[in-house]
Amino acid sequence: MIGILTAACAPAIALLTFFYLKDEFEQEPVHMVIRCFVFGALLVFPAMFTQYVISEETSMTSPLFHILIETVFIEEFFKWFTVLGAVYFHVHFNQRYDGIVYAVAVGLGFAAMENIFYLLANGLESAFLRAVFPVTSHALFGVVMGYYFGLAKFSKHKFLFLSAAVVLPYIFHSIYNAILIHFESWSVLIIPFMIFLWIFAMHKVKLANRQHSNSDEAVPWRFS
């Protein structure tokens, strides 16, 4: 049991530490980051319940519906709503990079709990692949979500940036799941896609740190 918990949580903690230390200005209080991580872990239960209700109460059996609504939308919306409700209006959310730290913490808390259930059911043999793909992808979706939360916090275009904070992770997560489910040779596509996600996410990390010094300036609406 200890081995499963370690294998399930260690990748999430390592990735969270990595993005936490990428903050070049003022690192967030550890208790706030832990709080978001715990909230993310607890999100697994309402997400699973909602997915169960949808699967039982609807007649939709389309794989596309399963990917776009039953899985991806519920997960990304719940994570987005948690960041919005738990930290977006908090006094410690005082710079743009903070959005990345908190959204990554929520995403990795979710990934860690999901990983625990998966490894309990399937054993430690899949721990490495789970760390490289599902856990890492939740972190990268969190970077994108948090970047736009950070822009929304200090911009006049709050609605547009808050929308982008859920729409872009939803799109990336949908593509990720579609590759895994619909392609037999999924590794041929998922590796380039993960490389793209890493490049895209690290670009957002650099932008968030760079924009900190200009936090009083209006941010134009763009996806760059």
UniProtKB/TrEMBL annotation:
Pfam families assigned: PrsW-protease
Transmembrane feature ranges: 30-54, 100-121, 127-147, 159-179, 185-202
Membrane topology: Multi-pass membrane protein
EC assignment: 3.4.-.-
Entry annotated with the keyword Manganese: no
GO cellular component, one term: plasma membrane
InterPro entries: Peptidase_PrsW_arch/bac, PrsW
GO biological process, one term: proteolysis
Subcellular location: Cell membrane
Family: Belongs to the protease PrsW family.
Identification of the protein by name: Protease PrsW
